[in-house]
Amino acid sequence: MTGSLTITETDEERDATQLILQDIQSGVYAPGTWLKQIDLETRYGRGRNEIRRALDRLALKRVVEHVPNRGYHVYLSDGKQWDDIAEIRIMLETGIAGKVIARATSMDVSVLRELADRFQGLLHSGTVLELYEANLAFHRAYVDLAGNAELHSVIAELRQRTSSAPVSQWHTRSRIEVSAAEHHQMVNAIEQKDELWLKTLIEQHIRQK
Questions:
Q1: End position of a domain, from candidates 74, 107, 127
Q2: Are residue 63 and residue 50 in the same domain, yes or no?
Q3: At 32, which CATH number?
Q4: What are residue 125's phi and psi, to 5 degrees?
Q5: For a FRET experiment, which of 12, 59, 60, 164 has its CA 20 to 30 Å from that of 190?
Q6: Which residues of the chain, if any, have pLDDT below 50?
Q7: Do 47 and 91 belong together in one domain?
Q8: Contact 74/31 with Cβ under 8 angstroms?
Q9: Using one digit for the tens of pLDDT, what is the confidence trace for 124-152?
Q10: The domain containing residue 161 runs over which residues?
């Protein structure tokens, strides 16, 4: 993670799949919303074939659902699915806590703290999308410290299945503030090499209780 370069893509450089997914994850399209292809073509400036391929890819990931003869809508998950995915994430992200603590350098801790500060700094002036992306950046950095690229992909896939994360997780402003505080506490736990505390924080953070 140390010394890595972040490249920000423009909308023109991203394919329609990424653009639609971003809008779903940021709450532009709420769970259950029907996605009209002609509207998506206009919004993203992409052709019909690219939009159709994008929707098919997202359907395979269960981000959207295809209903024959009707079209596509944003996947509407039930409470059990959300709980099941949370359980899997807890197992994975607490499972690497010991490795993260063992591998984290003082520079890594500083980078994590900067990411936690960025999320907190957006509380008063940031958009939902900016908050969501800052939250993802913090969690990506945490997972990256385990040194397992495949795990990173698995967790990202799980996150996509609970696609409208800001809507489903951050019910109130106070919950966002708690999330910001938990980020800082997680960094402190890593710095202090307190594995049990880190695991406890990760579980309560994912459950969002």
A1: 74
A2: yes
A3: 1.10.10.10
A4: -125, -10
A5: 164
A6: 1-13, 165-168
A7: no
A8: yes
A9: 888 777 887 898 899 999 999 999 989 98
A10: 79-208
CA–CA distance, 43 with 208 (Å, rounded to integer)? 33
Strands 71-74 and 34-35: antiparallel
Residue pair 168/162 in contact (Cβ under 8 Å)? The answer is yes
Looking at this protein, which amino acid is placed at residue 100? V
Count, residues in the chain: 209
Site of tokens 């809507």 = 167
Counting Cα atoms < 13 Å in the Cβ hemisphere of 191 gives: 14
Domain stop point among 49, 74, 99: 74
Question: Phi then psi for 67, rounded to 5 degrees?
Answer: -110, 115
Which residues lie closer than 8 Å to 27 by C-beta, 6 or more apart? 128, 164, 166, 167
Q: 46 and 67, same structural domain?
A: yes
Q: Which phi and psi angles does 35 have, rounded to 5°?
A: -105, 105
Domain count, the chain: 2
pTM: 0.68
Please give the pLDDT value at position 6. 35
The residues, ordered by sequence, that sit 6+ positions from 161 with a Cβ below 8 Å of its Cβ are: 61, 62, 63, 75, 77, 81, 85
